[in-house]
Amino acid sequence: MKDGFLDKLITRLDRFSPSEVQNLVSRLVRDKGFLENVFEALKEGLFILSPEGIITFANQSVLNFFGIDQQRSIGQHINTAIRGFDWNSIASPDTVTNRDLEVFYPEHLTLNFYTSPIKGHVVEMNEHLGYVMLVRDVTESQQEAADFLESEKLNALTLLAAGVAHEIGNPLNSLDIHLQLMQRKLRKLPKGDQAKLGSLLTTAQGEIKRLDSILKQFLNAVRPTSPVKEKRQLHDILKTTLSTLEAELQSRHAQVTLNLADNLPLLNLDADQIQQALYNLIRNAAQALPASGGDLWIDTENSDYEVTLSIRDNGSGISPEHMGSLYEPYKTTKSSGTGLGLLVVRRIIREHGGEIEIQSEVNEGTTVRIHIPREERQLRLLPDNQPEIIDLELE
After folding, report:
1. 74 burial class (0-12, 13-18, 19+ CB within 10 angstroms)?
2. pLDDT in tens, 330-355
3. 260: which DSSP letter?
4. How is 312-372 classified by DSSP, letter by letter?
5. Which of 4, 20, 87, 318 qualifies as a cystine partner to 53, CB 3.0-4.6 A?
6. Residue (of 304, 303, 307) closest to 233 by Cα position
7. What share of the chain is helix, strand, coil (3-state, %, to 5)?
């Protein structure tokens, strides 16, 4: 490093005897090799940087995190090696920096890095020698924190659900009964009054049904339910769901194209719950299509481990700011939606041991994939990978 510790040390070599110089050089070489071995053994990533931000050492872990090549990275500025990195906003010779960052290549990771200045204390020289940057992969811990927060939210909603069912459900039933009584009384009135009051009565009954539907969605979203599974054919459930939605799909001028895998195995499914999940997903896709109509593609794939069902549309898509809150209750882009549909779908799929993934682009469309394992995931004893011990006898 220019004007670094070694350069200043060299200018003072005349103060040392030949034996002292030899011992110092030998120690530097030995220490360098030892430290490099230690650094390479770390699971954490490690950069050693000059005061200007030039990379002088990088272990294999940090190279893997950022997808960079060691030969080309050494001697490069860190801003060049890591695209989008802003060294000037981080580097300070007097303070320690601790920040999180998100990388998307070669893997989507959440990383935490710790940058600390290096000070020299040899032969009465105390100057800034550079920086050490320690990088840790915190993706898993971030996901665990998010899962814990989601679990806490659902627990709170579950407690609220018990009160909601009593405080809203019972009055709704009472209102419905009284409206039915009013409907009977209405038949005894003159026809002119019947038409006027009948319209108001129909509106009131419709609003009660809508409130009851919202209440049921809320309870289904938060109440823990155990699926009753039996061997079922996913294609049969899909076709039943499409039949149920046929009128709505036609009214929206949706063209549905099926590309179904041959010889799909029977899966352990709760048919009612899976139909509910598919109903929500297909209906969401249809509602995203333009008023003039659009296309829906439904595909199934079969691997040795799982069955994947994909629902793709060429509708309005989902904006990036909404992608992060897809499963949050009561957050929806629809004027009349509750925001509970996807929460219910994900709970159903996860209770079947599967997972859901969503990809979307504004004005291009959305693809939803649900992955369901072919078999129940149970405890599996891993093979013993210990090396075989061979007794060698010297002749």
Report:
1. middle
2. 555 554 544 567 877 888 898 898 99
3. P
4. EE-SS---HHHHTTTTSTT--SSTT--S-HHHHHHHHHHHTT-EEEEEEETTTEEEEEEEE
5. 87
6. 307
7. 45, 20, 30
Q: What is the CA radius of gyration of the chain?
A: 33
Q: So what's the architecture of 230-373 in CATH?
A: 2-Layer Sandwich (3.30)
How many CA within 13 A on the CB side of residue 135?
21
pLDDT tens digit string along 241-292?
Answer: 999 899 889 989 999 999 999 989 999 999 988 998 999 899 999 999 998 8
Contact 133, 66 (CB under 8 A): no
pTM: 0.48
Would you tell me which CATH number, out of the four given (3.30.450.20, 3.40.50.1000, 3.30.230.10, 3.10.180.10), belongs to the domain 5-137? 3.30.450.20
Backbone dihedral angles phi then psi of residue 36, each to the nearest 5 degrees: -65, -40
Q: Give every CB contact of residue 101 below 8 A, 6+ residues apart in sequence.
A: 110, 111, 112, 113
d(CA 53, CA 51): 6
Please choose, from the candidates 317, 244, 308, the residue with its C-alpha nearest in 3D space to the C-alpha of residue 282: 244
Q: Among residues 107, 108, 119, 115, which one has the least CA distance to residue 135? A: 115
Closest C-alpha among 248, 239, 254, 363 to residue 309: 239
Edge-first strand order for the sheet with 306-313 is: 254-259, 294-302, 306-313, 365-373, 355-361
Neighbours of 157 (CB within 10 A): 18
**pLDDT, tens digit (0-9, with 9 covering 90-100), for 19-77:** 666 666 666 656 666 666 666 666 788 888 888 889 988 888 888 888 888 777 888 89
Nearest CA among 204, 218, 209 for reference residue 165: 218
Q: Where exactly are the structural domains of the chain?
A: 5-137, 143-222, 230-373
Which pair of structure tokens corresponds to residue 187? 């038949």
The alpha carbon torsion through 21, 24, 30, 34 (nearest 10 deg) reads: -160
Q: Helix 234-244 crosses helix 271-287 at what angle (to 10 degrees)?
A: 50
* Distance separating alpha carbons of residues 240 and 236, to the nearest angstrom: 6
